[in-house]
Each structure stands twice: as C-alpha cells, then as structure tokens.
Specification:
The complex is a heterodimer of chains A (504) and B (403). Chain A has three helices and 24 strands. By secondary structure, chain A is mainly β. Chain A has a domain of 151 residues. The termini of chain A are far apart. Chain B folds into four domains: 134 residues, no CATH class; 44 residues, no CATH class; 96 residues, no CATH class; 34 residues, no CATH class. In chain B, 31% of the residues lie in helices and 0% in strands. The chains are: A mainly beta (504), B mainly alpha (403). At the A-B interface, β1, β3, β4, β5 and β6 of A face α6, α8, α10, α11 and α12 of B.
Chain lengths: 504, 403
C-alpha cells in the first residue's frame, strides 16, 4: 500500500515542464483547436472523450452427436463498453471498462462478468503510467496473456524504463455457459480469486527508433505455492528499415530449461519482397505444483522460412514452409520407435488478388505431413466491400484431406462453407450475420449461425477558450466520427509562433 | 575474414549496400499518409538553388503554415518575377519563361494570356491543375521552424531534385530522428490523426487502413500470418499496441464469444487435433480449454472416458482414441500407444483429462523420462513436495539424490 500511495502521490504532484509546450514538450494533445470543421480529428488538449457502446452477440450451433442426437447451443450475450479519456495537455486520466453477460437460450443459465475496468494515470510527457484495476497484461513467459485484478506501473527515465505488475489472474468461464443442471462444481467456475497470484517486473530500453530490448521476470503462484518462474528476453533491431532481427525467449527457472526461444530475421531486399527465416525451440512446461509436471514432455525445434511478394498493389503472394524436429522417440523403457518418425513438415501458401479496391479474392493452401499424420487444405475466400467499405460480404470455403495414421478414425475428406455479411452504414452502428456449414464424415455435419449488433454512443467535450464547459460544448462523437474519412482534415498548432527561420 | 566476406556478400545480396535507409527519396511513402499527387510542373529545385534562391523566397507561406492543408506553393505572380511569361520571346529568355517551360506538356498557353499584374487573365485557358491533397497528419511548418528545424531536415534530397514530389516528404523514419520522446514527443497522435470516438490514433482515413508495416519493430500488420505472429509485438511493448487498440479488442478474440473464422479453417473442429499434437499453436491463448473443449467433447461424446471401454461414454471415447491406445502392462507399446502423443503434446491430454487419471496407472508405471533424476534436473520439493508425494512415500529411496 505504501508503494501504491507513493506512486499516486508522484502522479498527483504538479507536472514539471508542462508549460514548455513550444519545444520538445509538445504533445499532440496539447494543441488548442481554434479551427473549424474537422477540429475533432486531433486532440484539442483540454477535452474529454466519453464513449460507450453496446454489443449484442448471438450464436446458434447444432452438432450431431455420436448417438445421432442433435445437440444445440444458442448463447446470447450482451456486452457494454465504456471509456472516459481526459485529453488533457498535462497529466492524463482515463478509464476503460467492458462488461459481458449472457444466457443460453436453449439450455438456460446466466453468467455475467466485468471483463475489464481500469484507470490509467499518466503524468506529463508520458514518462510514466499507472494502471489500476481489472486489465490485460501481455508479456513473454509465465504471465503471457493474462487478465488480472491488479496494478501495472511503468516509468521511463532517459532511455531506460522499468515496469512492474502484480495481481490476481482471472479465469474466464463464460465461453461455455453452464446450464442449471450442470454438474460442474462451483470451484471450476471461480474467477481466480483465492491464493492465486502473479507478479512480474521488467527493465527495457525506451525511445529508440528501431531497437526494443526487454528483460523480465514473472512468477505465477497457485494456491499460494510458486508454480512457475520465468526469465524472459524480448529483443528486436531494425536495420535501415530493410532488416529486422528478433529474439524472444523464456527460461523456466523451476524446471531449469529453456521453455521457448525464437530467433527470427526478416529482410526486404526490395520493397515488394519480404523474406523471413525463423528458428524456434519449444519445451513448454507445466505448473510445478501439478502432477502434469512429472510427466516428461519432449522438446522440439522448428525451422521455417517465408517469402511475401507484392509485385503489384493488387496482387500479393506468400509462401512458407518449415520442419519440426523432435527427439528420437523411445518408450519409457528406452525401446526405439522408428515408426513414429522425428520430422514433420508444413507448407503454406496463398495468393490474394484485388482487381478493384473493393474486391478481394484469396486462395490459400496448407499441407502438414510427418510424424503426426498428413493433412492437406485448400481454401478460398471472396470478399466484396462496396459503398466505401460500409458493406462487407465474405464467402469462404475449404476442402481438407485428413490422413492421420495415429487416429485412423479421423481419416477422410472434409469441407466447409461460410458466408458473412457485415454492415457499417453509419459510423455509430455495425451489424453482422454469418452462417457456416461444416461437412464432416466423423462428427457428422454441423451448422452454425451467428449475429452481432453494435452501437457506438459517445460525446466529446471541448472547452474552448478556457471557459467553463457547458452543454453546448458537448459534441456527439457520432457526428465527429463522420468526418474521419475526410482527407481535408486541417491541423493546427497555435501557440508555436515562428520566431525565426534557418531554412536554406 | 571469411566470415566478414560472407556477411558483406549477404548484405549485398539483400540489397542493403545500395539501399536508401528509409529516409531518402527512394524510400517508399505510405499512401495512407500521403494521398496520391499530380504535379504537372517542370520545376528544377537544384537549378533554382544553384542560382542563389533559397527555400523561403518561393515558399514564404510556410512561415505561418500550421496545417497540412495549407498550400505552400508560390503564387503565379511570384514565379513571374523571374519567368516573364508575358514577353513574346519568353521561351528564348533566361530563365526560360514560356508557359510550357513550367507547365509541362501544356501547349495552349500564350504570352497574351498574362495580365499586367503578371497573373493569368481570368478568361485564359487553364493549365492542368496541380493536385496536392493534404497529408493525413497533424503538422505545422511554423512549429517545426520555431523549434529549430530546417527544410532539409525533413525534405531530404529536395536540393538535388528536379520536381518536388511525395518522395521528398519525410518518412516516419525521418520524423523519429527528432520525435524520440525527448527532443520531441513520440506519441503516435503527435503526428497521426486522432479518432474522435476513442481519442486514439485514427486508422481508417479512407483507402487502406493505416497500420505499421514492420520496418522498425516486429509489427507488420500486413503480414499474411500477422494474426498468428502479433504476440511478439504485444510481448515486447503492449503500450505500443494501445496507441490504436483498446483492451476490449484483445478480448474480442482472446476471450470472445464469437471466434474469428479466419483464424482457423472452416472444418477446424474436425481436424484441430493434429495441430494440437504438433504443439504449433497456443490453444489456451484464446480458449479456456477446460470449458471450451468440454463443451463439444462431452456433448458429442468424444471423450471423458479415460480409455475405450472404461468409464465415461464408451461410444464416444472409442471414437476418439483408437484401439491399442491404452496398451497393456508389460507389453511393448505399439504405434498407437498414448505415450507417444503424451510426450509430444501433453497439453492436449490435459485438456480433457485430470492428472489423477494418469496416476491410476503411473503410480506403478514410471512416468519420468530419461534423466529426470539427474542431479540438477529438477528442484525437488517444489510445491512443498506435494507433487512427489502423490506417488512416493516419505523415505522412498527413489527420492534419494534429488534436491
């Protein structure tokens, strides 16, 4: 608590240098906006954005079971999003939240959850950030993609930054709605509160044009016991905008091994061509507090390459392939098993053609072969987006041949077809409906229908000329959004009076 | 020396040695920032500068220009101060001053079309227009000049150029030279326009959506496999993502009720087992396996029996696991034995099975791989030894040598 109070106090102190808006301290949001018309296209430095949206999602799914019965799911979800962003020229405060609740129309039951709800506090010039509340944290290693109740703080001094987070990881139990007759016990539906905990810290380089370097450590505790401890490295270096080198890695400190490591190099010898080579090493580990951690899991290495070519603005071709290399398989009592092999290959490719800006035709293929079986997929997509993208119709389909020796019952030819229609007639409304049919000899045929509606509601408060805001100063964000696509957006930076010119 | 030669050869092959480093006239400009221009003019900047002119003589309006929609081209009357197009022998003069000498390919202009104020007469034929759509940026010439910038800091190469084009407008690589967070702010919306609905950077400004293309960081949104590779950008700097995205957008997929169809092929439900066994995807990044997987596997009766013929649904489990999957104690495992797949992808097993199902047999069939008991390979006692005590009694000599 002391630490938190200190950070909050730091944020609350008068912002140094905030008045220096004519030099390096200029912030985008520090501009006043005396202009007319499309002035909302940039921050006016003193405004407040208040945005809310409501989203309804419905899904109908029918599956024929092994007993020739038809199983039906029909979940209906309602989502609400609400954000407030203070666009102040000095420190900035913002709030973002999402809520979701739903029921299954065919099975009953009701679940609801706050997905995110956090406050951001940023001082002048963004040299720091404190985020408090239910939020998502993304890092390498043990934390990974984690939704948590907690605090994340970041501070940048000169070219180096430090970051730390701590909180209670949450588990989402909303994907599969539990019916009233569900036999799952309450424990399986909890959200993570209890003795689960995660924390992490990192030191990183900041403000470098083409360099990212970040060292981190994360701990994951389950039921009060240390389950994972990972040291992580994330590095990337751009070279003359033509080459990008990336290294990512996570070391499992409890099981004393490299959990995963990636080295990737991408090059653009010419603007229309991108070439990449990746190397991965994987040996994912389980929580040390779980019996799963006892069972040995074999590592593998993966080498793959890829080429993306865009010879013309309307055509893009890409091709990728790689080999996965496993340790020589043996049984637990060291009997060699040559029949399962060590190598597994993947070949992927595709071509996208856009004869007109609003028409897209895409064909992709994927061939997987090797130790785990063979699978060939060819798919196609045709998409049209007329009326400046306000309508999008996408038709897609694929056929697959599945030949998996170790699960021979899955052998066969499969296919699917799907149609999606999405509309965005006005900036504040979106609607989408889609249907998919899956043709399968194994699980029989399946069908799915889904739909969603989304309304954007919001306002943007402008306090012009330093006067107190009044109702007339509130502008519907909906109207403002209508101007986004207008390329004539002016931009002004008053307050920066020209005092000289050393131009040639 | 050989290594150095090899490296230099590689660089040459990659075109690095002769490539412009992203800031010069040869580097590509984004059409999402600089809409297409049409400049049917002949205007040799190099020659004008060589004759002693400076930028501000012709482009004096930039001194007060505060927005990209300002048209900072010189007026016709200013050009006419030297280019006396109204004279009969204008084309023969120095500098050449015939209409077609500047208005490239336009032959309708005549000296008599110029009025006494050196401007074209109102009823004179019009040359092809110069189309200069404003850059989709927040930018102030006046502000930059006040901060000490000079023309060539941004307009690299214009002093050696003939016609000034979009290629002489700065790339982001050039902008970031000063906008590094210290000398000048590096927040995206410092330059890029702001979405009025969210306050974040606007990405839909007509034409193609604006998105990073991976020239500085591993964030190439145009990559055909970006949806599978974006984790690396998020790992290294999640705040960079939040310049444009709200966290709700992450959760729409990672925690969403509607999964994006384009991530998986349409028949993915039938064939995902192969990918899961290859472990080349992270199912749990988007799915809560204990509920999401059970949802189908229970209802479609494809699992939850530990092995065929045992508990749970015998029909379903038989459909999922082949004969021989379990094996018999003491036999040499065949190709369909579960041990192979368990060692290749134990995560897949854990989707449906609880570890106590494994322990039923493995409490007396050694589950540990080779080298498991080697000194230093395992920190014994992790979790207060609770894991080991699942099978091992205190004092079990199998625990000797482990820390």
């Amino acid at each position: 608590m002391r630490w938190l109070a200190l950070v909050l106090a730091l944020i609350a102190t008068p912002a140094f240098g905030a008045g220096d808006v004519t030099k390096g301290g200029v912030r985008s949001t520090g501009f006043t906006a005396p202009g007319q018309g499309y002035s909302l296209l940039r921050g006016d430095g003193t405004g407040v954005f208040i945005t809310g949206s409501a989203q309804t999602e419905w899904r109908f799914r029918a599956v024929r079971t092994a007993n020739d019965e038809v199983a039906v799911w029909s979940p209906l979800w309602q989502l609400f999003h609400f954000t407030i962003r203070d666009d102040g020229a000095r420190r900035r405060v913002s709030f973002e939240s999402s809520f979701r609740g739903g029921t299954d129309l065919s099975r009953g039951g009701f679940r609801a959850e706050v997905l995110t709800a956090f406050v951001d506090l940023e001082p002048t010039h963004r040299w720091g950030l404190v985020r408090i509340g239910r939020q998502v944290v993304t890092t390498s290693g043990a934390a990974g993609f984690t939704r948590m109740d907690g605090v994340r703080a970041r501070m940048t001094l000169h070219r180096v930054g430090v970051e730390a987070f701590a909180g209670v990881p949450l588990r989402t139990r909303l994907i599969a709605l539990q019916g009233p007759d569900s036999d799952d016990d309450a424990d399986s539906l909890d959200t993570g509160w209890g003795r689960d905990f995660t924390w992490g810290a990192a030191i990183f380089l900041a403000g470098h044009k083409a360099t990212q370097l970040r060292f981190g450590i994360q701990d994951r505790l389950r039921d009060g016991k240390l389950a994972r401890r990972h040291l992580t490295l994330d590095f990337s270096q751009g070279i003359a905008t033509r080459v990008l080198v990336r290294v990512n890695g996570a070391v499992d400190m409890l099981q004393r091994r490299i959990n995963d490591a990636t080295i990737a190099v991408e090059a653009r010898p010419a603007d229309p061509i991108k070439i990449g080579v990746d190397y991965h090493h994987w040996q994912p580990s389980f929580d040390a507090t779980s019996v799963w951690s006892v069972f040995a899991s074999d590592p593998y290495d993966l080498v793959q390459g890829r080429v993306v070519a865009t010879p013309h603005r309307a055509i893009r071709l890409w091709f990728a392939g790689g080999t996965q290399i496993h340790k020589a398989p043996v049984t637990a009592d060291n009997v060699p098993r040559p029949e399962v092999g060590r190598f597994s290959g993947t070949v992927r490719g595709g071509v996208t053609v856009r004869p007109l800006p609003w028409i897209r035709v895409q064909i992709t293929e994927r061939l997987v072969t090797g130790t785990a079986g063979d699978k060939l997929m060819v798919g196609g997509t045709v998409g049209v987006t007329p009326w400046e993208g306000r309508l999008a119709v996408t038709l897609r389909g694929d056929v697959q041949r599945y030949d998996f020796d170790l699960q021979s019952k899955l052998k066969g030819d499969y296919g699917s077809v799907g149609l999606e229609i999405a509309g965005n007639p006005v900036p504040w409304f979106r609607a989408r409906v889609s249907g998919d049919a899956i043709l399968t000899p194994w699980l029989r045929n399946q069908f799915q229908l889904s739909a969603s509606l989304e309304f954007l509601l919001g306002t943007h408060l402008r306090r012009g000329d330093g006067t107190d805001p009044d109702l007339a100063a509130w502008e519907p964000a909906l109207l403002a959004a209508a101007g986004v696509s207008d390329p004539r957006a002016p931009s002004t930076v008053p307050g920066l009076d020209p005092v000289g010119w050393s131009g040639r | 020396m050989k290594r150095l030669t090899l490296l230099l050869s590689l660089l040459a092959v990659l075109g690095l040695t002769g490539a412009a480093p992203g800031s010069g006239p040869k580097a590509p400009r984004s059409a999402s920032v600089y809409p297409a221009q049409e400049i049917p003019l002949r205007m040799v900047h190099q020659r004008h500068l060589a004759n002693g002119l400076t930028c501000e003589v012709c482009h004096s309006s930039v001194l007060e220009s505060t927005q990209t929609s300002d048209r900072n081209l010189p007026p016709h009357t200013l050009c006419a101060a030297c280019h006396r197009a109204e004279l009969p022998n204008a084309h023969e003069m120095f500098p050449k001053s015939g209409c077609a000498d500047c208005h490239e390919g336009w032959t309708e202009g005549k000296p008599e079309h110029i009025g006494p104020d050196l401007a074209p007469l109102p009823d004179a034929p019009k040359p092809p227009p110069v189309v200069l759509p404003p850059a989709l940026l927040t930018f102030s010439h006046a502000g930059h000049l006040a901060a000490g910038a000079v023309c060539l800091d941004c307009h690299i190469g214009i002093d050696q150029a003939e016609r000034g084009t979009v290629q002489h407008l700065p790339t982001m690589y050039t902008c970031l030279t000063c906008h590094d967070g210290r000398k000048a702010p590096d927040e995206c919306t410092t330059c890029h326009l702001q979405d009025p609905a969210t306050g974040r950077q606007a990405t839909a400004l007509g034409g193609d959506p604006m998105a990073p293309i991976g020239r500085f960081r591993p964030d190439d949104h145009t990559d055909p496999e970006w949806i599978h590779r974006h984790e690396y950008a998020a790992r290294a700097d999640q705040d960079q993502c939040s310049s444009c995205h709200e966290q709700r957008q992450c959760l729409e997929c990672h925690d969403g009720v509607q999964k994006l169809q384009r991530i998986h092929p349409g028949d993915w439900q039938m064939t995902h087992g192969l990918q899961a066994l290859r472990r080349d995807l992270e199912c749990k990044a988007c799915h809560d396996s204990e509920t999401f997987c059970k949802d189908c596997h229970e209802t479609a009766a494809t699992s939850m029996g530990a092995f065929p013929g045992e508990r749970g649904n015998p029909i379903g489990s038989a459909r999922f696991h082949p004969p021989g999957w379990k094996g018999e104690l003491g036999e040499v495992a065949n190709a369909e034995h579960h041990s192979f797949q368990a060692r290749r992808s134990l995560e897949t097993c854990s989707t449906c099975h609880q570890p106590d199902q494994c322990v039923e047999c493995h409490s007396f069939v050694n589950p540990h791989g080779n080298g498991y008991a080697d000194p230093g390979s395992w920190r014994f006692g992790q979790g207060d030894g609770a894991v080991c005590s699942t099978c091992h009694q205190p004092g079990d000599e199998a625990l000797n040598g482990l820390r």
